[in-house]
Amino acid sequence: MLTIFTPVYNRIDTLERLYESLLRQTSKEFQWIVVDDGSTDGGGELIKKFQKNSHFELIYKYVENGGKMRAINEGVALANGEFFLIVDSDDYITDDCVEKVLSYGKNLPNSMGGMIFRKMDIATKKITGKLYPKNIIDSSPIEIVYEYGIDGDKAEVFRTELLRENPFNVHEGEKFIPEAIVWVKIGEKYKMRYIDEGIYYFEYLEDGYTRNFQKLMRNNPKGFREYYSFMLSYPLPLKNKIKFLIRDTYFKRTKLVKINKERRNYKKNVSKWRKLIDNG
User: How far, in Å, are 5, 53, 63, 240 from residue 59 at the CA level?
Assistant: First the structure.
């Protein structure tokens, strides 16, 4: 069985499109898990309405707003499927998505961590990014990007047990860490099967993660620092190594500036307390 997981935060305007794509699935061997990350737009009531009418298992859970990665951890904990596919609430899937995933999954060696399919642009209905040199490639996230030169968004389907073993580490006070840190960790031990077939329609919305990368970095410095430090442990091409090194240095410097500021504030407060004590 396939678990389709959707983290939701104020996406009431696109949820029904995704739900309708699930109703059209040619295979019914799936469950849909929705973790509502503190929405305030009434999306939870819409999901509950879907629950009453759907012919597939639909699990809904509301949590306080903690970001996409914490929501994924919640979804993985609830999952019953052998495989796990994340479908964002502003995207949807092809009518044969579940059938195709399970068909390829039957022939996937136990030694492999999952399957990586292609995403298609909603506007053009065409696969985005560089074409694969052949229909199926057994590779890793590092190799596929830095040796084959195939980057960009993909539809990752992982064995659920591996996601349980490799949860996202989200730092206190932050809500995001790049997904690739977990994908690459899994890829260290398990090859992935890259399949040059589209199963997923997506678009970039103005308030989506893709369009707000700079803002994400500012708001989640610890998570990005962990990610860039982690990536620097790999033998990357020089230009990528330099880019990651610059960003890693930036976040380290940002941390030092924050620490020094906190120290100065502490010293000021100590000085004030001493004056109060001496004057008292």
Answer: 10, 13, 13, 40
Closest to 58 (Cα-Cα) out of 79, 83, 80, 31: 31
Whole-angstrom distance, CA of residue 38 vs CA of residue 53: 24
Render pLDDT for 126-181 as a digit per residue (tens, 0 to 9).
Answer: 998 888 889 999 999 999 999 999 988 899 999 999 999 999 999 999 999 999 99
241's tokens = 């190594």
pTM assigned to the model: 0.86
Residue 220: strand, helix, or coil: coil
Strands (DSSP E) along the chain, which ranges? Answer: 2-8, 30-37, 57-63, 83-86, 92-93, 114-121, 136-139, 154-159, 192-202
Residue 267 is predicted with a pLDDT of 45
What span, in angstroms and rounded, lies between the C-alpha atoms of 34 and 168?
Answer: 18
Average predicted confidence (pLDDT) for the chain: 88
* Contact present, 68 and 81 (Cβ < 8 Å): no
